TrEMBL record:
<feature type="transmembrane region" description="Helical">
    <location>
        <begin position="80"/>
        <end position="101"/>
    </location>
</feature>
<keyword id="KW-0813">Transport</keyword>
<feature type="transmembrane region" description="Helical">
    <location>
        <begin position="259"/>
        <end position="278"/>
    </location>
</feature>
<comment type="similarity">
    <text>Belongs to the binding-protein-dependent transport system permease family.</text>
</comment>
<feature type="transmembrane region" description="Helical">
    <location>
        <begin position="113"/>
        <end position="133"/>
    </location>
</feature>
<protein>
    <submittedName>
        <fullName>Carbohydrate ABC transporter permease</fullName>
    </submittedName>
</protein>
<keyword id="KW-1133">Transmembrane helix</keyword>
<feature type="domain" description="ABC transmembrane type-1">
    <location>
        <begin position="76"/>
        <end position="277"/>
    </location>
</feature>
<dbReference type="InterPro" id="IPR000515">
    <property type="entry name" value="MetI-like"/>
</dbReference>
<keyword id="KW-0472">Membrane</keyword>
<keyword id="KW-0812">Transmembrane</keyword>
<feature type="transmembrane region" description="Helical">
    <location>
        <begin position="12"/>
        <end position="36"/>
    </location>
</feature>
<dbReference type="InterPro" id="IPR035906">
    <property type="entry name" value="MetI-like_sf"/>
</dbReference>
<feature type="transmembrane region" description="Helical">
    <location>
        <begin position="184"/>
        <end position="206"/>
    </location>
</feature>
<keyword id="KW-1003">Cell membrane</keyword>
<dbReference type="Pfam" id="PF00528">
    <property type="entry name" value="BPD_transp_1"/>
</dbReference>
Length: 293
């Protein structure tokens, strides 16, 4: 006896599955709608602890205010600097090292590959990393967010697999024409690696933009805080100096809640704008180096 109920070609399982997907999607979308609505709500009509699906009265006052504060502008500059410089250095170190690991004739190749795989399985931990950054004199510096994260084992392995899938005959022809190893890398390997470069540019940039924990433990000067650290302070530490700077005004008091939501939207906006146009590169990045023709 079949317990499957068919309705317009759909089974009972399909209805239940679609219903769960819709409910989960709504549960994910509603928080974004609430943040968006509160951030655009006029401070004069805002009511605390009220759920806003759409603003009762649209206003850009919260955005004008947050963009006029030194704390937000400084954190934006810090995040942009760390993201741009960190992404460029990540690409240089990752691709040059991965290219070297593809050469089995390189002295110590097995040892270096073994060390890469070892770091993929084991890590030093928070305290040793902090002590290392401290001894290097990088505390309270932007470079503490960049130097310890120049590359990682997963990126090296994926890039190495991708570079190994490139035809070796092209490198041989370049050397026959008189190119050095560096010229082969720059003139042949790099142009052929543009899909991988585009993909990992996105991976590294998103990672730096959303970096929070390292900024929390390495950056003590509030003038060097990143956006994520500032937002944490705005949202959680309601009595902090950052909230006082961002939410207080002698002439026109802007509700702290709208200030928080506006800062969250501004921090998410660059990633939300980039993802729809570059999503195909992320999907392609999952398959990099997984198939050899």
């Amino acid at each position: 006896m079949s317990f499957v109920v068919r309705r317009k070609g759909l089974t009972l399982f399909d209805w239940v599955n679609y219903s769960l997907v819709i409910l989960i999607s709504l549960a994910c979308i509603f928080p974004f709608l609430y943040v968006f609505s509160v951030s655009f709500t006029d401070p004069q009509v805002y009511v605390p602890l009220k759920f806003y699906l759409f603003p009762e009265k649209w206003s850009l006052e919260s955005y004008r205010y947050i963009l006029s504060t030194n704390s937000f502008l400084n954190s934006l500059k810090s995040t942009v600097f760390i993201t741009v410089v960190g992404t460029i250095l990540n690409l240089i170190v990752s691709f040059t090292m991965a290219y070297g690991l593809t050469k089995k004739s390189l002295p110590g190749h097995k040892w270096m590959m073994g060390l890469v795989i070892f770091t993929l399985v084991f890590s030093a931990g928070i305290v040793p990393n902090y002590l290392l950054v401290k001894e290097l004199g990088l505390l309270n510096s932007y470079w503490s967010m960049i130097w310890p994260n120049l590359t990682n084992a997963w990126s090296l392995i994926v890039i190495k697999s991708f570079l190994e899938s490139l035809p070796s005959e092209l490198e041989d022809s370049g050397k026959i024409d008189g190119c050095t190893d560096f010229q082969v890398f720059m003139r042949i390997v790099i142009p052929l690696s543009m899909p991988a470069i585009a993909t990992f540019t996105l991976f590294f940039a998103v990672g730096h933009w959303n970096a929070y924990f390292n900024a929390l433990i390495y950056l003590s000067d509030s003038s060097k805080w990143t956006l994520q650290l500032l937002i944490k302070t705005l949202v959680i530490d309601s009595n902090s100096v950052a909230v006082a700077q961002a939410g207080a005004s002698d002439e026109n008091v802007v509700p702290q809640e709208t200030i928080r939501m506006a800062s969250i939207v501004l921090a998410m906006l660059p990633i939300l704008l980039v993802y729809p146009f570059l999503q195909k590169h992320f999907a392609k990045g999952v398959m990099l180096g997984s198939i050899k023709g």
